[in-house]
C-alpha cells in the first residue's frame, strides 16, 4: 500500500469548526489507521512534509502526531521515522474509499423487546397531542427569580452527590402537599424523588417481582407502563376496565397470583373514569390475600374535577402494600424531570439502595428550586389556575366536537384531566381517521392501541391542554374535514 495519508487534503479540515486543527488532523489520521486504509508498519510523512502538503503549521502536525502516539496508534523508530503501530486496524479488508454498511448489532431479548415497536406518534406542536401541558402559562418570571436567588445560596456541599431518596426539603414539601390535597399519608422519610414516573414503575418491578411473575394491568391501560413492566420480564395480565375502572375478581386471585397490580384509579388512563372506594378496598384486599403489591399511578391528580373527591388507595390504608406515584411533568413542565413515590416504611431502604445502584440521585438544584416554588405558594396558585383553564378548554372542545362533528363522534366526558375520548359512529374507522389526520398535521391516538386484548373499540384521544381557543377550533375543523372524507370512503 502506498502512503495512505495521501487521501488527506486541506479541504478535510474545517477552519470554521471550533475544534482545534491538530485535533481534526488527529481524527482524520486515526480514521485511516483503524479502518485499515493505512496498514500497520506504514511509514507516515515527516511532520515538516505533512505540514507543507496540508498548508498547516508544523506545530499543528506535531500536536496531532503526539496525540496519536499517546493513543498507541503510531510509534517513532530511529532511522525509520514515524510508522503505524502493529494491530491498530480493525482487521477489516477494505478498498480505498469504499463504504461498507456496519454489521447489524445483536441486541438482547430485552433490548429487542424495548425497540421492536415504535412509540405513539408525537408532534409537540399539534393541538390534540396528549400529555403536553400549557407551557406558555408556566410562571417563568417567578421560576427565574427563584433560580437566580437560589444559585447564590448554593454551597459546595450542594455540589456533592445528593441523597438517593431526594432533597429532603423537597420531600417535606411533597409530603405536605399530598397530605393536604390528596389524602396521602406520608412523611418526608417515605417520599422518594425520581426523574420520571416510569422509574418508579421499573423499580417496583425490580424490587417486588421476579422475572415471569404476573402483573394485573388495566385493559385499556397506559401502554408505556405496560412495556416497562414487560421489559422487566413480567407478564401483564389484562383486567377489563368498565365505567368504574378496573375490578379485581376471583379469577384474578387464581394460582399463582400476580405479584403486582398497576392502576390509575383517580382518572383511569385512557378512559378517564374514577374507581369508587369499594373497588379500591377490594384491590387492597387482593394485595393482602395474595401478598401482592399495588402501584398507584396518580399521574394527573391536580386536574381531577369530580365534586366528590375519592381518597387515594394509599390513603385508605396508610400501612398497606401500595407504592403511590406522582409527577410534576404535567402540572408544571416535562423538562423539569421530577416525579416521586410514596413507599411503605419497610421499602424505603430497598428503594434507597436500588437508587444508589442505578443513578445515585436526582438533580439537586432543580429540587431546591421546586421546593421553594411549592413552599412559597406558587405551585398551589398555578395548579388552581390551570385546573380552571383546563376545565374551560375541555368544555370548549366538547362543545366544538358536538357542534361540528356530532354526526360522526360521541364524546365520553370523564372526570377532568387533559384529554377527552371520542367514539366514532359506525362506518368510520379510527385507524383511517388517524392516518388521514396525520397528513394535515393532526396527532390522533387510537383508543384501540391502549388495549392488550382484542377489542372492537373504535375511538380517538384528543388532547387539549396545550391549545388555545383558536387552535382548538382550527384543529376541530381539520378533524371534521377528515371525518367527512373517511365517511365517504
Short description:
By secondary structure, this protein is α/β, with parallel strands linked by helices. The protein is 39% helix and 13% strand. It has helices at 21-34, 47-53, 58-70, 109-115, 140-151, 168-181, 197-208, 223-231, 277-290, 313-316, 345-358, 364-375, 378-405, 430-438, 469-488, and strands at residues 74-77, 81-84, 191-194, 214-219, 235-242, 245-246, 260-263, 293-297, 322-327, 339-342, 409-412, 419-424, 459-463.
Please give a handful of descriptors for the protein shown.
489 residues; alpha/beta; Arc Repressor Mutant, subunit A; Aspartate Aminotransferase, domain 2; Aspartate Aminotransferase, domain 1; 3 domains; 8-stranded mixed sheet; 3-stranded antiparallel sheet; 15 helices
Description of the structure:
- This protein is α/β, with parallel strands linked by helices.
- It folds into three domains: 81 residues, Orthogonal Bundle (Arc Repressor Mutant, subunit A); 244 residues, Type I PLP-dependent aspartate aminotransferase-like (Major domain) (Aspartate Aminotransferase, domain 2), CATH 3.40.640; 106 residues, Aspartate Aminotransferase, domain 1, CATH 3.90.1150.
- The protein has 15 helices and 13 strands.
- Strands 3-10-9-8-7-4-5-6 form an eight-stranded mixed β-sheet, sandwiched between helices. Strands 11-12-13 form a three-stranded antiparallel β-sheet, covered by helices on one side.
- Helix 2 packs across helix 3, helix 5 crosses helix 12 and helix 13 packs parallel to helix 15.
- The longest helix has 28 residues.
- It is globular and about 90 Å long.
Amino acid at each position: 500500500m502506498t502512503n495512505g495519508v495521501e487521501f488527506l487534503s486541506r479541504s478535510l479540515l474545517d477552519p470554521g469548526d471550533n475544534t482545534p486543527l491538530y485535533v481534526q488532523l488527529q481524527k482524520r489520521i486515526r480514521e485511516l489507521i483503524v479502518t485499515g486504509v493505512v496498514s500497520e508498519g506504514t511509514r507516515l510523512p515527516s511532520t515538516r512534509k505533512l505540514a507543507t502538503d496540508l498548508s498547516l503549521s508544523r506545530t499543528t502536525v506535531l500536536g496531532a502526531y503526539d496525540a496519536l502516539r499517546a493513543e498507541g496508534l503510531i510509534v517513532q523508530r530511529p532511522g525509520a521515522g514515524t510508522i503505524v503501530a502493529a494491530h491498530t486496524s480493525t482487521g477489516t479488508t477494505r478498498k480505498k474509499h469504499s463504504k461498507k454498511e456496519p454489521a447489524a448489532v445483536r441486541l438482547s431479548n430485552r433490548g429487542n423487546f424495548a425497540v421492536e415497536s415504535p412509540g405513539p406518534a408525537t408532534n409537540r406542536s399539534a393541538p390534540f397531542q396528549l400529555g403536553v401541558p400549557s407551557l406558555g402559562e408556566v410562571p417563568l418570571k417567578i421560576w427565574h427569580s427563584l433560580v437566580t436567588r437560589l444559585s447564590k445560596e448554593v454551597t459546595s456541599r450542594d455540589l456533592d452527590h445528593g441523597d438517593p431518596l431526594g432533597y429532603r426539603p423537597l420531600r417535606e414539601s411533597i409530603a405536605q402537599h399530598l397530605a393536604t390535597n390528596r389524602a396521602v399519608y406520608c412523611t418526608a422519610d417515605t417520599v422518594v424523588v425520581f426523574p420520571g414516573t416510569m422509574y418508579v414503575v421499573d423499580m417496583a418491578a425490580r424490587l417486588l417481582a421476579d422475572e415471569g411473575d404476573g402483573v394485573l394491568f388495566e385493559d385499556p391501560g397506559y401502554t408505556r407502563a405496560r412495556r416497562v413492566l414487560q421489559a422487566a420480564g413480567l407478564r401483564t395480565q389484562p383486567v377489563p376496565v368498565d365505567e368504574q375502572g378496573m375490578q379485581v375478581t376471583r379469577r384474578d386471585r387464581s394460582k399463582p397470583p400476580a405479584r403486582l397490580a398497576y392502576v390509575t384509579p383517580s382518572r383511569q388512563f385512557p378512559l378517564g373514569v374514577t374507581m369508587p372506594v369499594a373497588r379500591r378496598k377490594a384491590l387492597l384486599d387482593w394485595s393482602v390475600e395474595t401478598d401482592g403489591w399495588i402501584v398507584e399511578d396518580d399521574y394527573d391528580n391536580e386536574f381531577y374535577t369530580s365534586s366528590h373527591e375519592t381518597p387515594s388507595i394509599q390513603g385508605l390504608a396508610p400501612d398497606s402494600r401500595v407504592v403511590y406515584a406522582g409527577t410534576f411533568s404535567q402540572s408544571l413542565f416535562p423538562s423539569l424531570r421530577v416525579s416521586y413515590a410514596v413507599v411503605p416504611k419497610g421499602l424505603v431502604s430497598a428503594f434507597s439502595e436500588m437508587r444508589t445502584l442505578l443513578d445515585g440521585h436526582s438533580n439537586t438544584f432543580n429540587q431546591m428550586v421546586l421546593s421553594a416554588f411549592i413552599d412559597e405558594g406558587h405551585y398551589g396558585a398555578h395548579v388552581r389556575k390551570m385546573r380552571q383553564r383546563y376545565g374551560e378548554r375541555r368544555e370548549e372542545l366538547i362543545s366544538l366536537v358536538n357542534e361540528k362533528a356530532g354526526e360522526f363522534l360521541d364524546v365520553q366526558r370523564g372526570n377532568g384531566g387533559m384529554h377527552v375520548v371520542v367514539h366514532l359512529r359506525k362506518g368510520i374507522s379510527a385507524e383511517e381517521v388517524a392516518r388521514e389526520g396525520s397528513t394535515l398535521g393532526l396527532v390522533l391516538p387510537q383508543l384501540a392501541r391502549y388495549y392488550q386484548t382484542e377489542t372492537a373499540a373504535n375511538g380517538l384521544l384528543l388532547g387539549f391542554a396545550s391549545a388555545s381557543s383558536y387552535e382548538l377550533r382550527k384543529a376541530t375543523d381539520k378533524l371534521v374535514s377528515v371525518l367527512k372524507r373517511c365517511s365517504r370512503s
